Amino acid sequence: MCIFAVIVLNVVALMLPYWGMSAAYERGLYYGNIVFTAIFTLECVMKVLGLSPRGYFTDSWNLFDFVIVVGSVIDVALDGQSVNVNFLRIFRAARLIKLLKKVRWFTPFVAMCSFMDRCAPAAITADFSCQ
To answer: In this predicted structure, what is the pLDDT of residue 15?
Structure first.
């Protein structure tokens, strides 16, 4: 449950940057990014050690988390370089999907979104035969 709170806080932190933010505010977000990356890296290392590499990497969600952690480490390592990898931060928000799958109301919500996704193009063209 603790990692759930960290993921939610990280998603909130990812929404905080804005155009024209002060240098101190930007520095705070930068250090926050490092803290979140360290927490997720520690979680990843602990799971690899606890489950063994084979046990860890056979689970697709763990593999997903691993890719996000590696991307986060690259993001922190290359921050300030000529290469812009800020887009990698978006994938951290995708970790919410993993957690929301455990919530009971999420499955019907996904079904509704899938239906709306199929119907949106038809609704725009006034063809209401969603299949």
So the answer is: 84
